Amino acid sequence: MARRHKRILVAVTMLLVYAALRLPTILATNTQPTTTGASLLPRTDDAARDADHLVVVAGHAVYTAANHEDAQLHKEESWFLEPFQHGQLETMLAHIHRGVELAAEDNATLLLFSGGQTRVAAGPRSEALSYWETADAEGWFGLAGVRRRAYTEEQARDSLENLLFSICRFHEISGR
């Protein structure tokens, strides 16, 4: 039985990868949006229009402190963490830092923090916004130019959605 589930999982994964790779072609063959529909989308600036790479940092926690002082960012009490996440905050902060570094290497790269409002007890705050605000509070780790190419995807609830929704959000932002 487990072998059958594994085959199904592999088949579904392959289908999703194929769909993600075909998405630009599928979207290009659709009719152009109406003026009304186009006006609902955010304006694509030059940095986003030139983007052809995407760095995704998947969120795992929600920042809940009232202020964004550096001293608060590195305290576990300032984050809503699941019991198994205690002791992992510095790793999460390192992921944010590394995402900024990777995006800084190429001006044609968008940085996307992904993660929705996954913790009811944390209030109406998303993982993505928490990570974006952390990078901002850290001064983008000395790489301030990344800020204008950093966005959020605030709907994902798990790793698969982080990937799929980020691809869709990239298209929404860049038009590509």
Can you characterise this structure?
By secondary structure, the protein is mainly α. Helix content is about 50%, strand content about 10%. The chain contains seven helices and five strands; from the N terminus they run αααββαβαβαβα. The chain has helices at about 1-30, 35-40, 45-50, 70-75, 90-105, 125-135, 160-175, and strands at about 55-60, 60-65, 80, 110-115, 150-155. It has a three-stranded parallel β-sheet, sandwiched between helices. It has a two-stranded antiparallel ribbon with strand order 2-3. Helix 5 (about 90-105) packs across helix 6 (about 125-135). The longest helix is centred in the N-terminal third of the chain and has 28 residues, at about 1-30. It is globular. About 30% of the residues are buried.
Integer-rounded radius of gyration: 18 Å
Number of helices: 7
Distance between the termini: 41 Å
Major beta sheet, specifics?
A: 3 strands, parallel
Q: How much of the sequence is in beta strands?
A: 5-15%
Coarse shape: globular
Low-confidence stretches: 29-41
Mean model confidence by pLDDT: 83
**Total beta-strand segments:** 5
Order of helices and strands: HHHEEHEHEHEH
Q: Which percent bin holds the helix content? A: 40-55%
How are the strands of the largest sheet arranged? 1-4-5
Secondary-structure-based class equals mainly alpha
